[in-house]
Amino acid sequence: MANVAVIGAQWGDEGKGKVVDWLASRADIVVRFQGGHNAGHTLVVGNQTYKLSLLPSGLVRGKLGIIGNGVVVDPEALLAEIARVRTQGLSVTPETLRLADNATLILPLHSAIDRARETARGDRKIGTTGRGIGPAYEDKVGRRAIRVCDLAEPETLSEKLDELLLHHNTLLAGLGAETFEKQALLDDLLRLAPQILPYAEPVWERLDEARRAGRRILFEGAQAVMLDNDHGTYPFVTSSNTVAATAASGSGIGPSAIGFVLGIAKAYTTRVGSGPFPTELHDATGQLLGERGREFGTVTGRKRRCGWFDACMVRQAVKTGGIHGLALTKLDVLDGLPELNICVGYQVGGETLRHLPAGQRAQAAATPIYETMQGWSGTSGGARSWAELPAQAIKYVRRIEELVEAPITVVSTGPERDDTIMVRDPFED
Fold first, then answer.
1. Tens digit of pLDDT for each residue in 107-131?
2. Does some domain include residue 318?
3. Which is catalytic among the residues 13, 21, 74, 228?
4. Which listed residue, 158, 186, 288, 333, has the most CB atoms within 10 A of its CB?
């Protein structure tokens, strides 16, 4: 059996939570490998709705959850999330959740810097959630980060805080924001240490043992390929690499162990925050997609921008993200629309392109080239086999396959886990 990595193939919010939940029911271990608590996965299980940010989705199914070294962890947010899901009856203990001891911590000063810089940008805002994810990653690559393992070494913690505050207080003061006192931060971290450290271990070792034992591992990505720090619509991206390769580096397991890479894409396109969006709709159809699809961010509650399916962008995500097959979600949202447009290219400065250019102004100038298809009058909602889909809906799915140059291996037709058509089992070799 193959291990599976799940990544977004658009700008996030593709419905990864439901697909991951569906796969997690058959996995042994579920691993988060990048991002922070800006990620948001919604899982509907019976009459319970779980909204997870840091916790791996497999915990809902009683599977071992691992937070890898590629994740930046806000300890307060993690403990609050654990407490919240426990009130919903979910068991989260050091036996069910493990945390990489070399993962970077997010401190209150990181979110303060995040917000202060976003304010300073004025009209040029990136669209950050303000939760300190970016500044924490900056500290990681700047070699001044405080990591989970440092909580066990008060002297190391104290020394690192000196360096951290020298850097960040200077920046905060320059931005006209309130600075931080070392002792208050140190006291908070030492208070949190006994609550966090029981979950900590070298998770790479556990994953190596699991791989050798033939256990099924599901790698759960956050955000999406077009928000990748290298391959996305830079600078309107997240602060981590979201491609499948990061499943290896962000968990401490070799790339050969990743196996099948499943990309998730909506049957249309959405985006939260600022940045280019060639197929965005500002009309009644865009409003309809948002209302039907309940397009609000799981974490932030922000209204998502909506538009037609961008096959060019998803094709780009397939190539750069290492995607073997796609799960197409929310097909039912398109029910009843008389016509559907698919973006098959862009016009940029008189040139026709099949990819989003890297340049910021060129991205903003990209105008979609559409192919129009007939919609369908029947319903696809709740379909669990190809036979239950309207014929034109099947044609739409097949055309997407051709344009993105990847097979559709899963089709999601509703919020319930079983509202799914499986073409190929990602866990099968």
1. 999 999 988 888 887 777 766 777 8
2. yes
3. 13
4. 333
